[in-house]
Amino acid sequence: xxxxxxxxxxxxxxxxxxxxxxxxxxxxxxxxxxxxxxxxxxxxxxxxxxxxxxxxxxxxxxxxxxxxxxxxxxxxxxxxxxxxxxxxxxxxxxxxxxxxxxxxxxxxxxxxxxxxxxxxxxxxxxxxxxxxxxxxxxxxxxxxxxxxxxxxxxxxxxxxxxxxxxxxxxxxxxxxxxxxxxxxxxxxxxxxxxxxxxxxxxxxxxxxxxxxxxxxxxxxxxxxxxxxxxxxxxxxxxxxxxxxxxxxxxxxxxxxxxxxxxxxxxxxxxxxxxxxxxxxxxxxxxxxxxxxxxxxxxxxxxxxxxxxxxxx
Amino acid sequence: xxxxxxxxxxxxxxxxxxxxxxxxxxxxxxxxxxxxxxxxxxxxxxxxxxxxxxxxxxxxxxxxxxxxxxxxxxxxxxxxxxxxxxxxxxxxxxxxxxxxxxxxxxxxxxxxxxxxxxxxxxxxxxxxxxxxxxxxxxxxxxxxxxxxxxxxxxxxxxxxxxxxxxxxxxxxxxxxxxxxxxxxxxxxxxxxxxxxxxxxxxxxxxxxxxxxxxxxxxxxxxxx
Lengths: 312, 224
Ligand SMILES: Nc1ncnc2c1ncn2[C@@H]1O[C@H](COP(=O)(O)OP(=O)(O)O)[C@@H](O)[C@H]1O
Ligand SMILES: [Mg+2]
Known about the structure:
The complex is a heterodimer. Chain A is α+β, with helices and mostly antiparallel strands. Chain A contains 11 helices and 5 strands. In chain A, strands 1, 2, 3, 4 and 5 form a 5-stranded mixed β-sheet that branches. The longest helix of chain A has 43 residues, at 172-214. Chain A starts with a helix and ends with a helix. In chain B, helix 3 (98-109) packs across helix 4, helix 3 (98-109) packs parallel to helix 5 and helix 4 packs across helix 5. In chain B, the strands form 2 sheets. A 6-stranded mixed β-sheet of chain B has the order 6-7-8-3-9-10, sandwiched between helices. A 4-stranded antiparallel β-sheet of chain B has the order 2-1-4-5, with helices on one face. Chain B has 7 helices and 10 strands. Chain B is globular, with a radius of gyration of 17 Å. Chain B is an alpha/beta fold. In chain B, helix 6 (169-184) links the parallel strand 7 and strand 8 (188-192). Helix content of chain B is 33%, strand content 27%. Classes of the chains: A alpha+beta, B alpha/beta. At the A-B interface, helix 1, helix 8 and helix 11 of A face helix 2 and helix 3 of B. Residues 13, 16, 18, 36, 38-44 of chain B line the site of adenosine-5'-diphosphate.
């Protein structure tokens, strides 16, 4: 039998037959890896507090307007439209009531985007036509698309080139504000990830310390049987790194499931899975585990075989 | 040349002399018993001979090398290559099976070989227990696994510290019988014991008291 085979046999036996302690460390690593995998993703999108309008007579109100008018879901809001081509002053409009169309709308939800959309009210096209008395007239269609600046530019150029009579423009303010939110959110998640990784290192280090203390006798025995300090280090590291790898793998899967769930619930969009994330997460887990095991494992080599074997 | 020679060996812990100017020579292939009351320095002496501890004073010549002067790394090598250890508390790795425990010793020494390890277990009458964990074995069986582990690398010298201290009569006899086999094969044996019955079967017995060698008994009716 090869030495490596016995090495693997020893460390897997140690992990499988001494479950409890290892499980703690494994879960810690997996949790960190979960967060790490989740950090990759997150694009803020329209967040609706309540429901999207599903039928006529319902309106989605931008958050800014809702705040100004102290509106909440279920309230009734009256919208009025000036039939005059030129906008009348507030004074004249109130005197000239016959020139106005108006309708009551139920607030189905409040829209929170962190952008300009919070200053708008959204109603169905049918309601709009009834209110304005004009059909099939569109001045402008606004799309909110989360993508990079260059991607958006390419989309806009495409639309302008391929459809006659429509010119697509980027509304920078909107995209930029979304980008700001996105980058702020990413920075936050990154910070959380770093903190979680640090906490994990502490957890793994203390667990490994406990493992080494618990197994002082075994270390003494192995030394008495002729193990060098180096082979003691290699064996404990082997266990730690194997555990780190498994934790990383588990974590990247959990991380994806978790990120997907968050994305669906909060941003209402699904995320794509980057296969590269798995090896990356496993690598980071293994590195973090290795780093946190260094000190505890070194302390294992201090065990004196004579002391350990001198009776109970 | 003798296999092992202790010259004026002392081990001093503060005011206490665990070993006090001990002189002892052990020939190759000899079977020696060490007796003495608790705290007389028997284990201290075994640890020094077993390269796990160093004397405060004196020389310990093992196979022509003064191990009192060697570095820790060199001592590990000597221990691995020349010495087989058997303990009172068995000391098996609790998450490895009997055969794996024997293989650990092979692993540090040279190459693990499962068949050879199984043969060693067969010699101590435990072939059918090879796949059991230490917790599934009786005390006597655990001690026999330890003996198989101590023998597997064919050490020049086997050190046993109270090997029968935790065993019943039947298992004690099995262990003595195994020692007899080892002796016949030419292995040098040093056995620390409280038990006169275990000392009687050896060729020679030395007695320690307060760290000093006070008596030496040659067994006239020794039978191999
Ligand atoms: N590491 C140590 N530090 C201090 N005293 C020790 C140490 N090891 C052993 N002793 C003392 O040395 C004496 C001999 O111990 P030991 O060799 O274990 O005795 P035995 O094995 O004969 O019962 C005892 O008094 C013990 O307390
Ligand atoms: Mg003792």
